[in-house]
Amino acid sequence: MNRFVASFACVAMLLAAAHAKDDYKPGPDSEPQKGVPEGKVEKFRHKSEIFAKTERDVAVYIPAQYDGKTPACVMVFQDGVSAYLNPKGSYRATVVMDNLIHKKEIPVMIGIFINPGLFPTDDPKKKPGSNRSFEYDSLTPQYVTFLEKEIFPAVVEKYKLKLRQDAAGRGICGASSGGICAFTAAWQRPDMFSKVLSHIGSFTNIRGGDVYPGIIRKTEKKNIRVFLQDGSNDLDNAAGNWYLANLQMESAFKFKKYDYKAVWGDGGHTGKHGGAILPDSMRWLWRDTLTSAEPAPKGPEKAEKIKKAEAIPTPVEVAPEVQPRVVRPRLFQGRFRLFR
Asked: What is the pTM of this model?
């Protein structure tokens, strides 16, 4: 009997190790589908005045369903061109948007993909300096002002687009420092953004971001909806522990009764998990937002839409004292998850 128990335990440990490899895969909504019209992507180079002497690449996704008459919702992506735009990368955001807009699971929306600023150099032997940490990790309204005063007007002017002006029609997304940047933009200007999607967010002490949980708890609740994703094997360094920092953010949102969702995995500081659940994240974030041209669903149709959006795996509860690299596995819907 003891031999059987020991053998079973060894097999369980081997299975757990095999599954705890950040091996998340994109699903059908992250792949081009037959019969789904593709949106077009336009790119331009932007020189900033608010972030003086910087230049950056910007891309604009315009879905096939945009009619040029009805103001469209907006989703802004930090590290957009380098991380979120690639149709073969981890996130594949435009492919996801093509599929979900086609199925009417998210409203018609314009995607604005923005890279962090670079300081150009005339020396071909030197790489341009990066302004990424200053723009993304700072807790000031400077970045959201940059979006309001420079990026939105440039996008509207260049492509003659009509965009929603209300916060309910605008979301913002980012990974790592881009994640805390997305939250800061909405926190500073909830009149501009009401939806935040953070992947492996850097709510740590890079530039003081570790103070957010305490600030959230002591500040009057703002009209912001937040989706958090992180993994138990995320970074742990002098700036802090990323997973614990995200758990603290979740705890603060729960305490203040925010509309939030937190999904934890076993991954590291990569886009694999966040990319794999991006379709579900977008469905949840935009679950009750319609373009003004769409009739509001009623009765069973409305209930089904909300039920589908809510069908993301329930957040795993982790006691605050548990270190994120201490993992006890169990099988949950085909994957090993964490539990107390």
From this structure: 0.84
